[in-house]
Specification:
Chain lengths: ~400, ~240
């Protein structure tokens, strides 16, 4: 169906070209859905025009031509030929109309050739007395069936068919020894048979083109609005992250820069390490990876390992997709403990479809809690439970999310 | 094979171990681990299970590297287990699927190569007496078992497995769960015994189950569901 839509008529082609450049285009490639929308609109519009054309052709053939043919059937030179031709065109026209509406039109040129043969036969069979009456139905009807035959093609094809039709009529008129009045009538009839079908044909093509263009403009506008929204959201997220980063690393960097913090002080080193771990995790958070939680934990583990801590990261199962807030609450408390770890660390993640448990175990050692909340269970009623304890043997931090 | 390999090991003599691995360095390393344990003696080593067992038909426990000459020896494992050989699989392949597949095939235990001497000696000793031993890596595989037909574990059993996998310290698990270390071990071992249901039947699975009942780890009335699996091992109605 789109094949004939993509073969623009001559007039529509010329009218469309300058406008196409003015259609605003989004920077990103437009999605296939957005591209399909204008075609859909054009299709809907074209379908309306097709229905109109089919109704006009068949209504004219049945409501105007048929009564005239029947009332004059005894006055034709060869009534059987005229009537048979009418039936042939009625059947062929109905089939062509249905196929056109279904989007699989009959092959245009064989159909046009058949119509022209009928044209010649009826002119020959009508006889001199019926030449210019309504009973010679090919005058009024055939032009509309030509429209159906070459629907969606260039208008030149339709003009060629109508010209041939005029030529056949001219031969018939001349063959009967015309007087000047007949020639005048002929010119009038030819004008009548040309003007309306051509007007409908061209008009529908132009309307379809305009509809497609309007839909394209509107789709491009929507795409640009969506892109702007996404860009704004991205900006907001970047700002939020920047605020988090500032709170993570800003103070210790500020102290170092101001000379208030001594880089040799273990406490300052620990704060730097914690800040680095948070930064690393925040950077990992914005990466687009299949398993963001594991990716973020791996980032923290990498950093600890690079700082000389042997770390064992074991994962069992695949975490379900989790919002960034949940992932932060699963990973963040452990990042603090990890920054504090000495000796070795064991980081484990056990995931099921409705539960994710992350645990960090490191050897316990003397000294106060350097980071994070004091030992105990921290359950604020949220979906993530945090547990931290030290038993003189190990320090054990665990976060647990339950659906 | 003259000796009944499933016969309970008596306390009088050291447990005979056969080591099957295609890396001589690993064989030597494991031999060195076991050499410090007077209750164990290495009878034969090699890279072909059949040859090693021909050399040591009385071996009580076979330590089998799951990957021999570039391929997974799961079928060999199943064959040995069906014949009643107590096979402890040890492998650097510690993905949960591989571990569970080894249990299904009848391995008495699965040991990750990085789990070291302590777990290795414990595992072999437990295996020799048909008792379960679940090193932390295997506990992780069991607690994360995603298969729809996995054994049904109780909440306590799951939690004990999970915490044991996380902390590798039964004392810490006991403190966390506010139970004794002995009870932690019971929960973990009961979970392991439930896995004798999974996969095809094997003489080793039946032996584990029988010993668990004997030890009071599981009660006979709890094992109605196991019976169908162990049918072919039952000699008396």
């Amino acid at each position: 169906m789109s094949a004939d839509l993509n073969t623009p008529a001559l007039t529509a082609d010329a009218a469309e070209a300058p406008h196409r450049r003015s259609v605003p285009t989004p920077r990103e490639p437009v999605s296939p859905a957005a591209l399909a929308a204008p075609a859909d609109v054009a299709h809907a519009s074209d379908r309306g025009a097709r229905i109109a054309a089919v109704v006009i052709a068949l209504a004219w053939h049945v409501a105007i031509a048929l009564p005239a043919v029947l009332s004059a059937r005894t006055e034709f030179a060869a009534p059987a030929v005229v009537l048979g031709a009418w039936i042939l065109v009625a059947v062929t026209g109905a089939v062509a109309g249905v196929r056109l509406l279904q989007g699989s039109p009959l092959p245009p040129w064989p159909l046009a050739a058949l119509l022209l043969v009928v044209d010649a036969a009826v002119f020959a069979a009508a006889g001199e007395r019926q030449l210019f009456t309504a009973a010679n139905w090919v005058w009024g009807t055939l032009g509309w069936f030509f429209v159906l035959a070459v629907w969606g093609r260039r208008v030149l094809g339709l003009i060629a068919l109508l010209s041939t039709h005029a030529l056949i009529a001219l031969v018939a008129v001349l063959g009967h020894g015309p007087d000047p009045a007949d020639v005048a009538r002929y010119v009038m009839y030819v004008y009548g048979t040309f003007s309306l079908p051509v007007a409908v044909f061209v008009g529908s093509t132009v309307i379809v083109g305009l509809a497609r263009e309007r839909a394209a403009v509107s789709a491009a506008g929507h795409a640009m609005a969506a892109e702007r929204d996404a860009a704004e959201r991205g900006l907001r997220e970047r700002r939020d992250r920047l605020a988090l980063v500032s709170s993570a690393a800003g103070r210790v960097l500020g102290d170092l820069a101001a000379g208030q913090a001594d880089p040799d002080d273990p406490e300052v080193q620990r704060r730097c390490m914690l800040a680095a771990a948070r930064l690393r995790r925040l950077i990992a958070e914005s990466d687009d990876v299949p398993d963001p939680l594991l990716h973020e934990l791996r980032a923290a583990a990498d950093l600890a390992e690079r700082n000389g801590l042997p770390i064992d990261l074991v994962t069992i199962g695949t975490p379900p997709p989790l919002p960034v807030e949940i992932r932060r609450r699963l990973a963040d408390p452990l990042t603090g403990t990890l920054a504090d770890a000495r000796g070795w660390a064991r980081l484990t993640v056990v995931s099921g479809s409705d539960e994710v448990v992350v645990s960090l175990v490191t050897p316990d050692r003397e000294g106060p809690e350097a980071t994070g909340p004091p030992p105990g269970e921290h359950d604020d009623g949220g979906p993530v439970q945090y547990l931290y304890e030290r038993d003189g043997n190990i320090r054990w931090a665990q976060t647990r999310w339950r659906r | 094979m003259g000796a009944d390999p499933v016969a309970a090991v008596t306390g009088d003599r050291p447990v005979g171990v056969a080591i099957v691995d295609d890396h001589p360095v690993v064989v030597e390393g494991v031999r060195a681990w076991l050499a410090n344990e007077p209750r164990l003696t290495v009878l034969a080593t090699g890279d072909d299970p059949d040859e090693v067992l021909r050399a040591a038909p009385d071996a009580d426990v076979v330590l089998l590297d799951l990957r021999l000459h570039g391929r997974m020896a799961l079928d060999k494992l199943a064959e040995l287990s069906a014949a009643g050989r107590r096979v402890v699989v040890y492998s650097e392949h510690t993905d949960p699927q591989t571990m569970l597949a080894a249990l299904d095939a009848g391995a008495v235990a699965f040991l990750a190569k990085h789990e070291g001497r302590e777990h290795c000696v414990e595992t072999v000793l437990a295996a020799a007496s048909d008792r379960p031993y679940v090193p932390p890596a295997l506990a992780g595989a069991m607690v994360g078992d995603p298969r729809p037909d996995r054994p049904m574990l109780s909440d306590k059993e799951r939690e004990a497995l999970l915490l044991w996998f996380q902390s590798m310290s039964k004392a810490s698990v006991a403190r966390r769960m506010q139970i004794s270390e002995h009870t932690v071990k019971q929960y973990v071992d009961r979970a392991r015994i439930k896995y004798t249901r999974a996969g095809r039947p094997a003489a080793t699975k039946a032996a584990l189950l029988a010993r668990a009942i004997e030890d009071g780890l599981v009660r006979p009335e709890e094992i109605g569901i196991y019976r169908s699996q162990a049918t072919h091992d039952r000699t008396t109605p």
